[in-house]
Write a structure and sequence with these properties.
It is a single chain. With about 270 residues, the chain is of the alpha/beta class. It has nine helices and seven strands; from the N terminus they run ααβαβαββαβαβαααβ. The protein has a seven-stranded mixed beta sheet, sandwiched between helices. It is globular, with a radius of gyration of 18 Å.
Length: about 270
């Protein structure tokens, strides 16, 4: 990939500054994919994204009073659900100023600003002391980080020994180079996660390929396309005409890219 970690950070911030407001209206403030259990064809996209968050919460197994770091927090919806699960204190970070503003306002609306706060910070150089957190997650944010080893080392540094790390990420099949598809996507192979985590100071607890569960059912795709058509002009402004035309092509499964899978990971800080 040609982008340096610094330039990538700036580009990601610009992308999500534009993307967050629009995506929040479509996906109930979640900026990640959904999870449909086996045989589930009826859950809406909003229900499926909430279900994926719940799976991540269970992997993290939060305890009351813990201090948890959400690395790449979006506009805060998963952080609110996480804080609610075990009355934990959550700090969410993102490189997007607009996301911080929106998430902070929402925390105040929900009356949880005392336990959930949001800060602008770079995952490559976290502004926190060693061992200052009890748990952390990278919820569909690692894919935007070109130096994944550094991001994991920083996560390990700020976690106390025995702390859990949960990851939801997109991975690529060996023959695919996703940096050629989109400059902000640096997906790695499924077999690369284990060594990266071990070298960063983690012990891998579980790595689960859940690609089959994030495939959007046809009825949900129809509903999402209808919403996208309703706001087509805004999509074009954000993503460009060619991208929007491709996304709205009824012959294409817009919400699945062949060769790009999805993984859930649990690890523990050694």
């Amino acid at each position: 990939m040609n982008s340096t970690p610094q330039s990538n950070t700036e580009e990601v911030a610009e992308l999500y500054d534009e993307f967050s407001e629009f995506h929040a209206r479509i996906c109930d403030s979640n900026l990640h994919v959904g999870y449909w259990p086996e045989g589930d064809e009826k859950s809406s996209f909003q229900e499926a994204t909430a279900h994926l968050t719940d799976l991540m919460v269970r992997r993290l197994a939060p305890k009351t009073g813990q201090r948890i770091l959400d690395i790449g927090c979006g506009i805060g919806q998963p952080a609110f659900r996480l804080a609610q699960a075990a009355a934990a204190d959550v700090v969410g970070i993102t490189v997007s100023k607009r996301q911080i503003e929106r998430a902070t306002a929402r925390a105040e609306e929900l009356g949880v600003a005392g336990r959930v706060r949001f800060e602008r910070a770079d995952a490559m150089k976290l502004p926190y002391a060693d061992g200052s957190y009890d748990a952390a997650w990278l919820f569909e944010s690692l894919i935007h980080m070109p130096d994944k080893a550094q991001a994991l080392r920083e996560a390990a540094r700020v976690l106390r020994p025995g702390s859990r790390l949960a990851i939801a990420d997109m991975f690529r099949e060996p023959e695919k180079d996703w940096s050629e598809i989109h400059p902000l996507v640096t997906a790695i192979r499924l077999d690369e996660y284990g060594p990266l985590l071990e070298e960063a100071g983690f012990t891998v607890v579980d790595i689960e390929d859940v690609t089959s569960h994030i495939l959007v059912p046809e009825t949900v795709r129809v509903s999402l396309r209808a919403q996208m058509l309703e706001h087509r002009d805004e999509w074009v402004r954000i993503a460009g005409e060619n991208v929007v035309k491709a996304m709205l092509d009824p012959e294409v499964n817009t919400f699945y890219t062949p060769g790009l899978g999805y993984v859930l990971i649990t690890a523990e800080r050694r």
